[in-house]
């Protein structure tokens, strides 16, 4: 099969399109033909050495996708040949085929096509974690959403809106305003220098926002703290773009809640993974959650997809098609 591997740590130059033997399923595993693989910022972090270093290089990149079961191990009784499935956190997804325990896969309803499924497993479940679990948004809450036109940002904006919240989005260029507004953002601030605080506080009636969702690196951190209202919540989630460094708890605004939200804690059992995915699929089928595919690339062009994502020019989800 064809696959995209990283040969070592570094920039796009460590990525190669290669031939690899087809994986073979063990007794509790299934083999899936990948229809679409999702591109995530996390893949760039892996390439740079931020995670998943225990697996030696060269290794196949990617952790998300959708496809069709083509072989099942003898102990598997809940998935069948030909069934359509999707997944998150299955390393080796930038490939024509992937193998993993059956419990890692989520069966897809007929109404959810492969592209939609591969677009929401990582970024949709992450947005669902942030908006319904880490800080369950209440009607009337005002949220500040960074990178509001990105993959997580567009889905998070919609989830906040469907829970009755208001959204102030922050994006890096005016080209992204329309996408953020289409997702439901009430206001969009264009900024790359951490200069969004005054406007966010003004737009929230002078009190600051109830919750800030920030995965945008050190440049936005202090501003996000300053934009919070009394007893507000800071959902931090951006390990790839970097954190604020060690925090002195006494120097933080008093009585705020702050934490590092990680999607895995939303789906840490196979039952939760299937239940949370089913909720996303239901919202999509009802037309309450819409997926925006911002770019689709042949598998062989994975380098271009990652370079585009790092350039800050993309909106929505980027997909690879084997
Ligand atoms: N904690 C978790 O569980 C979890 C799970 C999934 C994703 N994430 C994180 O969520 C963030 C978004 O991930 P995604 O896959 O949905 O990607 P994405 O939002 O589609 O793309 C990343 C966004 O970050 C901004 N950006 C890109 N390069 C940047 C740079 N050099 N400096 C500052 N901002 C930059 C861009 O927004 P602007 O240009 O508009 O600012 C871009 O929209 C990433 O930080 C990722 O690591 C965390």
TrEMBL record:
Keywords tagged on the record: NADP, Oxidoreductase
Residues in Enoyl reductase (ER) domain copies: 10-320
Transmembrane segment boundaries: none
InterPro entries linked: ADH-like_C, ADH-like_N, ER, GroES-like_sf, NAD(P)-bd_dom_sf, QOR-like, Quin_OxRdtase/zeta-crystal_CS
Chain coiled-coil ranges: none
Superkingdom in the source lineage: Bacteria
One GO cellular component term noted in the UniProt record for this chain: cytosol
GO molecular function: mRNA 3'-UTR AU-rich region binding; NADPH binding; quinone reductase (NADPH) activity; zinc ion binding
Pfam family, one: ADH_zinc_N
Protein name: Quinone oxidoreductase
